[in-house]
Amino acid sequence: MSTRHFLSLLDLNRQELRDIIGRAIELKSFQVQGTSHELLKNKVLAMIFEKSSTRTRVSFEAGMEQMGGSAIFLSPQDTQLGRGEPVEDTARVLSRMVDAIMVRTFEHEKIQRIADFSTVPVINALTDDYHPCQLLADMQTYQEHRGDIQGKTVAWIGDGNNMCHSYINAARLLDFELVVACPEGYEPMPSLVESNKDRVKIVRTPEQALPGASLVSTDVWASMGQEDERLRRMKDFEGFEVSLELMSIASEDALFMHCLPAHRGEEVSANVIDAPDSVVWEQAENRLHAQKALLEFLMC
Ligand code: CP
Ligand code: NVA
Fold this sequence. Notes:
By secondary structure, the protein is an alpha/beta fold. The chain has helices at residues 14-33, 55-66, 87-95, 108-117, 132-146, 162-174, 190-195, 206-209, 230-236, 244-247, 270-273, 280-299; strands spanning 44-49, 70-74, 100-104, 122-124, 153-157, 177-181, 200-203, 215-218, 255-258. The two termini are 13 Å apart.
């Protein structure tokens, strides 16, 4: 059987995604109850990080440890990748030493090349185009709080970025409506919107996206690698800060999500993200449980 990779959510079918979310909820209860689940004993995960991370690094590393395996952190500064060794060669070598490779990088095409040359599963831990691991956690969090997301409306407020692209893929797999509110020039990938036009709609203001939304999600206005555009983006995204006033337009029981890190007073108001019933901390915690389920799916 050929090696399974997880470069985007679409590497899973609908049932597999549902199963991974269900298993994540189960593994979470094992963790809480202290039930041993060393399902990845002696397995090793290599983690290539070409961009910064707190949640992704710690959740993968802790997850491997909790499942009886281990993880190795690799950055370009400390490996030959930073001195120009081709990623294809790195993929071939790592494949002979570890059981899976996690990659956070810039161009999506680069992780595709790594997967082409890897004989072990490659996991996308964020590229400029997608962040599928975050969606596993977001969808787990929604399910835990509100049940099945099928048929619901989700509002994406802000940049049509890697997170937004993964929400589009989630809408396709889990069958929900996605309304993206973004300023002109910040739309998600046109080909992705086109191939999902039956369930993805682009609007120009948050006020147009929010009515009927059961989930409101946002992200930073300038992603990693776009730091130079920050000032221009702050201007262009005026009116897109998810505030209590905007949240009041959504469904009464709407959840607010943010993949973090967040900028209070930019894409989200402090009183929304820090509300007593905010689920963002649980959403972050679920990275751990969801990725443990993913690792089990890919490695066992
Ligand atoms: N949400 C997320 O991926 O966080 P990190 O950048 O801290 O890994
Ligand atoms: N869109 C953000 C997500 C960070 C987790 C970025 O790529 O920087």
